[in-house]
Amino acid sequence: MLPELKTFMSIVEVNNIDKVIENLNISKATIYEHIKYLEQYFSSNIARISEKNEIAITESGSLLYKRAKQIFNIIDDTSIELIQNNDSIQGNIKLGVNFTLEEYVLPKFLSYFLKKYPNINVEIFSDHNQNICDRLHGNEFDIGLIEEIPSCRVFKQTRFLRDKMVLIIPYANTIKDISSYINEFKFKRWITRESSCSTRKFIELFLKENNINPEDIMMLGSNYAIKEAVKNNLGISIISKFVAEPAYKNDEICILPLDDSYERYFSYILNNEDISECSEIFLNELRSFCKRFYK
C-alpha cells in the first residue's frame, strides 16, 4: 500500500497530474490504478480527477492524506532509530576469504555493510580454500568464505553465492570475429591456472568435452593475470563471471556463456555454531546482499 499512498500524497501536494507523472516516473494509468485501489480499500471516495486533469480532494481524501503523512513520518523516524541501534553494535570479525571473493565480491558488500554497521571491525585474510579450512580449524578466523570443495569435510559448507564460469576471448567487434575463435579453439593459446585451482579443472573439462588438444598452453598465477592476458590478445581461457564481467562491460574482452555444468558455489564455514552477534549479523547481511545483487 505504500506506493499507492505515496502517489496520493504527491497528488495532494503537487495538485498537477503531469507533475506527479514526472516526479514519480509513473504513467497516468498507474495514478488512476493507485487511486482506485485506495478507494476500494478504504471504501471511500478520496479524489476526483476531471478529463482536463483538474483535481478535487474530498473530505475523506484530506483525512487520508493527513494519516498517510503520519505513516511516512513514522517510517522515517524508525529508519533513523534503526541506524542509531546499528551504531550500538560493536565487535570484531576475522574472515578467511577465497581470492575471487576478496577481489570481486566483498568490496561491494563491505561498502554496504560497514556503512550500516560502522562499529563492527572486519579483518580479512585471503588464502587458498584448503588453507582457510585448516586455519579456521586452528581458530585463526571466525568465518571462512570459500569455494565449495569436497576436501573440506570437517566443516558444514553453507552456500550463499553461485558463480558461473564463462569462456573469454579477446575483444571482437563483430559476430564474424567471434565465430572465427569458436572454429579455431584448438589452434589458440589456452591460458590456465595451476593444477590445484578449480579454474584449471573447468578448462580441462571443456577441452575434454570438445575434443580439443591445445597446441599451446600458458599457465598464470591469478584470475586477474588471465583476464589481462586475454585482454592483450595472448590467448583464450575460462574464468569466473565475477572476474570477467567488469572487463566485458568496458569492451576489453568478449564473454561466451557456458552451460550449467560450468558453475560453482561459494560457501561459508564456521568452527562453532555458537557464533558472536557480529558474525551472525555479517552472515545474515551477506546472504541477503547476494540474493539481491547476484541472482
TrEMBL record:
Lyase recorded as keyword: no
The organism's place on the tree of life at top rank: Bacteria
One term of GO molecular function: transcription cis-regulatory region binding
A single GO BP: regulation of DNA-templated transcription
Keyword set, alphabetical order: Transcription, Transcription regulation
Pfam families: LysR_substrate
LysR substrate-binding domain: residues covered: 88-288
Membrane-traversing stretches: none
Presence of keyword Transcription regulation: yes
Record-stated family: Belongs to the LysR transcriptional regulatory family.
Protein name per Swiss-Prot or TrEMBL: LysR substrate binding domain protein
UniProt organism field: Intestinibacter bartlettii CAG:1329
